Fold:
Amino acid sequence: MLKQLLPTAAISGLLLIGSLPANGAEPAVEFRESIMTLYKWYLQPMGGMVKGERPFDAAAFRKNAEDLANVASLDLTVGFPEGSDDDTEARPDIWLDWDGFTGKFADLQSASAELARVAAGGDIEAMKQQFKATAGTCGGCHKKYREKK
Ligand code: HEC
Structure:
């Protein structure tokens, strides 16, 4: 009995896995929104320090900068399969201008890597400057490729 059931269970498991990519855009949308949530999580405390809303803590800044660079090293573009803009803030321009879009992602990757490097050096003025450049790459992509709501 068990011997007969097991292969059936295994096969239906395989069918489930096999059907995932054809499952519509939802998992990809969840993936990219999760990544964006993480970006924001690491960016915000640094922004508070740069704006003077909280005391400048160079060690905490450095940790956030490193973690942001780590998250930004994950390939964001897999979260944007072609045409996955229904009911989201993603603009169709992403796929009409894929090179432009991936270029904006590359900007974030290099700016955040540089921010982690600068933060390790401990020069607070340099950290503030590079923070602004990094935050600017978020807006640089949103302005063109995210729907304003
Ligand atoms: C390469 C382009 C690109 C870059 C770079 C980028 N974003 Fe986004 N972001 C988007 C797009 C497109 C959306 C809309 C996604 C959607 O609605 O599915 C978005 C949505 C968001 C959201 C809303 C997520 C949600 O749950 O709806 C937040 C928050 C966000 N981004 C923060 C950031 C921060 C912070 C940075 C910089 C550290 C950043 N993004 C960099 C393209 C980008």
User: Anything to note?
Assistant: Confidence is low (pLDDT under 50) at residues 15-23. Residues 29, 32-33, 36-37, 39-40, 43, 88-90, 101, 104-105, 108, 137-138, 141-142, 145-146 surround heme C (CB under 6 Å).
